[in-house]
Amino acid sequence: MASEGDGSIALMPVDFTAIDFETANNSRASACSVGLVKVRDGRVVDKAWWYIRPPFGHDWFSEWNTRIHGIDESHIVDALLWSDQLDDLIAFAEDDVFVAHNAGFDMGVITGACEASGLPAPDYAYLCSLQVARKTYHLDSYKLPVAAMAAGFEDFRHHDALADAEACAAIIVHAAKRHDAEDLDGLSAATGARIRRIGAGAMDDRPAVLVG
Fold it and tell me: Which of 6, 41, 82, 177 could connect to 113 by a Cys-Cys bridge, CB 3.0–4.6 Å?
């Protein structure tokens, strides 16, 4: 993650876990890889990445998706099923707020994969870095590579789940600094990007519409 001076992020009381999924096909249940980046006080303190074998019935790969992220059946042959990996995802994120770029998609992957696996979706709050970016920068496009460049995070491998999670984290930390936000609640208030929920705590606060 990039910033001023020595390439590290200035210390800020901003804590969260950035998350990004790649999917095997157009089913939101077809997560085939995940990247996770834990941020404490505005600094990356931990990272994780792994392949996922999607739930049965959602485990086929479309040519289009493979062309985008480079993952196919050969990469997940030894990977654990979503149902066997969910606990690892929760253990990494703990009780953090998730952040993701176009977060409705990534949160939809969690709920979709859980539903397809016969599991309850975990209860998490989340904030969308795409919505934050739109209220922070003046850009022709707010796609992840463009917004990340505005945040000083460049030359990463887009559609690699870990690299995308790192880029998302960079946007949130940079935006918090620009808005003088002390935490995610302050950033949400400054940008109007609402902190929403998935899982049992979601109630009537549904994730954004998925866009693939």
Answer: 82
Rounded to 5°, the CA angle 110-117-165 comes to: 25
pTM: 0.90
Cα dist. 203→5, 95, 197 in Å?
44, 18, 8
Contact present, 16 and 97 (Cβ < 8 Å): yes
Which CATH number among 3.30.420.10, 1.10.20.140, 3.30.2010.10, 3.30.1450.10 corresponds to the domain 16-200?
A: 3.30.420.10
Domain boundaries, the chain: 16-200
Length of the chain: 212
Name the token pair of 211. Answer: 């866009």
DSSP H helices, the chain, are 63-69, 73-76, 82-93, 103-116, 129-134, 144-150, 161-178, 184-191
